[in-house]
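Readers outside the structure-tokenisation community will struggle with the description of the input data as it stands. I therefore recommend that a typical entry be quoted early in the introduction. An entry of this sort, consisting of the sequence and the corresponding backbone structure tokens, reads as follows:
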Amino acid sequence: MSRASPDRSALRRELIAARRAFAATLAFQTAQAALDGPLRDLLDQLEPELLGVYWPMAGEFTPGALPFPRALPFARRDPADMVYRRWDGAEPTVQDDCGIATSSGAVAVPDVVLVPCVGFTREGFRLGYGGGYFDRWLAAHPGVTAIGLAWSAAETQFPVEAHDRALTLILTERELIALD
């Protein structure tokens, strides 16, 4: 479903509410399984040396255990910044400044990152939670392969701003959108 809205905050709220409603349905588990296989196949092709993953929020795709060394993002609010920290796969016991579970491992730079999308465009831009953390990180690491993970219903349109960074690929439960 495609939506047009110049107000990114309102669009974000609408998409998060729709995602939470979707997460409460049986279709959510079907979509989770439909995205999981293609993601694993894609990562097998890319063979990341260090995979940047994320700790899923309500309704986001949950990548689960993957057979690659992994790192989790750690966001700071002041100054607004994000780094990745190596992660051993154990349940995180620390949170970043945004209250998201993370790792206390060493700071590292992944060569492939999975990026959660609240919304996305066919042109490869993502709507996140509004903090700009992933955009700043991607701007500082232009050679990294960034894979947006989204539900197909989150496809939308929104005004692209100067700080927005396009992803390399977007993967949904229905398709892989290559953007290079």
